[in-house]
Amino acid sequence: MSSTSATESREIGNRIVVAGIAAIVLILGITAVLLFINLPDANAFNMRVERLFVENDTLTGNAEIKLLEILAGSGTAFSDTLASYRFVIFVLLIFATALLVAAVAFLVMLIALNRRMGRIERQGIEVNSLLISRDQKSVYLNDFEFKLTDAALETLSVLAEARMDDEVLSGAEIEGVISGRDPSDCDEAAGATRIKRLRDTLGNQLVSELLVKNIARKGYMLAIDKNVIKMV
Hints:
This protein is of the alpha+beta class. Helix content is 68%, strand content 10%. The chain folds into 2 domains: 122 residues; 102 residues, Arc Repressor Mutant, subunit A, CATH 1.10.10.10. Helix 2 packs antiparallel against helix 3, helix 4 packs across helix 6 and helix 6 packs across helix 7. The longest helix has 62 residues.
């Protein structure tokens, strides 16, 4: 039931994204049409000059003809300039459309990533397999290999064994199991230090913080399914 609702939510989200991008393109398209419609006609100046020639056929003097030629040249220059402006505006509108679509796409990706990170923080890491190899001093987490120190490997092994027994170990209990002493004779801080060194050895903060859970007033445990743990 939850998977069905999640699928429906994704479909609704995809539809909203597509609708948003389509709306952006439509709005910019309407803006472009209105802008080009309201731009002055490139031949308007030339038409006025031509009208001057037609209505003033008595202008036959050299100076007057020269003036009309200058006006005609100005009209051609104006037409060319306006045509170049139209092209620049067209390119800018395409660029603005691409930027807005990219911004929406990146925003959706960030929202999806934040949601996924939120689920990871709430549920922990989805671990399909955790193989602890004492001989190779390595840990294979979802086929990713981590080289550990002897102390870190020992700490992780203790946590893995406790997880298979559904136990939560305090810092003193972790130190007691590793050192072979009674937990009452061990310091809680010593176990906490071992946990910190394990996390530092794992390196990736996200992996280490979510893999090794700290339960308030109880202790530490591996936040994974006990059935995926293997030790060799």
